[in-house]
Design a protein that fits this description.
By secondary structure, this protein is of the alpha/beta class. The protein has a single domain, classed as Alpha-Beta Barrel (TIM Barrel). It has helices spanning about 15-25, 60-70, 90-100, 120-125; strands at about 25-30, 75-80, 105-110, 130-135. It has a 4-stranded parallel sheet with strand order 1-2-3-4, with helices on one face. The radius of gyration is 17 Å and the shape is globular. It binds iron/sulfur cluster. Iron/sulfur cluster binds near residues 38 and 43.
Length: about 150
């Protein structure tokens, strides 16, 4: 991992900022919506202001993120959830397709508790090119790596 003087001061040159970002950021996790259906005892998601109506990432924020990542042809990990359940809202299909269209070389992934999966949903996800989906059923805390299609995680 690169650690340089740019870590401690503002980088005002745009091209240098692109270079530093590309050297230092290899994993981005972002929630395109906020809701999770579970309340696992070991998860910080069970308390606080995260419990409530589902909220969606504003379109202008998504556009800003993708616009910046396109500048460097981002090709590292892009995880489309964090402390939410990505498959709780079917809009995740559009978000995955959007991410693939904007960042064709990114390693797009989701982590899901699997509660919403059925055959039709699995087939719909499997049609997304090079998507890796990890299932972590809450009763089994060790993540179960199960890529639905494309390249397995490395
Ligand atoms: S399913 Fe995942 S995100 Fe949701 S409460 Fe459980 S550990 Fe947290």
């Amino acid at each position: 991992m690169y650690v340089g003087s740019e870590m401690f001061e503002a980088v005002t040159d745009r091209e240098r900022a692109r270079q530093v970002f590309a050297m230092t950021v290899s994993r981005i996790e972002m929630e395109t919506h906020s809701y999770c259906n579970r309340r696992c005892s070991y998860c910080p998601n069970v308390v606080g202001d995260r419990i409530g109506p589902n909220q969606f990432m504003p379109a202008d924020i998504l556009e800003k993120i993708y616009g910046g990542l396109e500048e460097i042809n981002y090709d590292r990990y892009l995880i489309l959830n964090y402390y939410n359940e990505p498959l709780a809202d079917r809009s995740i299909i559009a978000r995955i397709s959007e991410a693939r269209a904007r960042l064709p070389n990114a390693r797009i992934m989701i982590y899901s508790n699997g509660d919403y999966l059925d055959r039709a949903f699995i087939e719909e996800l499997a049609e997304r090119p090079r998507l890796s989906a990890h299932l972590h059923p809450p009763e089994a805390r060790r993540p179960l790596h199960r890529p639905l299609c494309g390249q397995p995680d490395q």
